[in-house]
Amino acid sequence: MDGLKVLECSAELKQPAVMATIVRAVGHSYRKEGASMLLLQDGTRVGSISPGCLEQDLRERVQAVLAAGIPCHVVYNMNPDEDVLWGEAVGCGGALTVLLEPVAGELHGRLQRASDVVSKGLPVRLMRRASVQSNDIRYSLAVGEPALRSCSADPGFRRGMPEGMPLLDTLWMPRERLIIFGGGDDTVPMSEAAQRIGFRVIVADWRESVLQLRQVRGEELASGSPREIAHAIGVCPRDYILICSHNLARDKEMLAEMLSHNPHYIGLLGSAKRVGLLLDGLKVRRQVVHAPVGLLIGAEGAEEIAVSIAAELVSVRSAFRRSMRKGGERFEGGRLVSGGRLGTQNGGIQAAR
User: Fold this and answer.
1) Can you give the pTM of this predicted structure?
2) How far apart are CA 225 and CA 237, in angstroms?
3) What angle do CA 305, 192, 118 make, to 5 degrees?
């Protein structure tokens, strides 16, 4: 979820910075079109677009980009037959075109707005258009349902945007929510792992005293009956649910309540026998309920089980993102990209126009 980290950091910048985004990838590459990172003036960075082989070169370009104040493209050809400098050193065999944008002025304002929108649970699309009169890029935002539309599928989508050549769209989706029912110590590694892979975690329990003992940074808490919890947090079809309180009656009550809200994923912790007791008498959609939860990797203990569950969450989330691809677009790490054909020379740098 580097994309959301880059967005959030860009919106709260206290120093000059440059955003680097892959706008074209040909052949093998570590990251694909739409992957982005943030390069701060003090040398620190957020995110990555390579295994580390390009970051230093990009970092050395930051001052020049900030001084010029306009976006530019850099091309890296990792084919040793065509580019000895990068090809033999990196050996990936692909070619990347990277867009470098100073995070200032209009772009900074748009990113601040986009970050605020995503934090409220809405999707937002940043649309770029190269100005026909200058080497500048002009920006526009689409929020909510319009942000999800493909510009190729909806010719009227860009109506009202400034004129110029379309460059690149970036779609940011809100963090998926993982609601963990059960506040015991064994759910701490699950919460921490889920947050590391980009989920917004809510831990729910009928015992307020148990939740008061939680000391996991970044998670939200909700107490009450399953119905009260569902109402308080507004369970929706995009949510992921993990039921693991170890109390059979409470877990079954929670499962019945969550099924009525049609979430995207429900994971049930426990043996096959326990899962059978939980599902007995309930109408479930097998593609939604994953039981027993987690990938079969021979996990033992809370830490390893958390890894198996996190792996399953990634698998389910990735399958959903693949289903969103249409019209030749890519949804990669929170970004959906279209267009962006660029003509630059190997190893060259030019203004984005």
Assistant:
1) 0.73
2) 20
3) 125
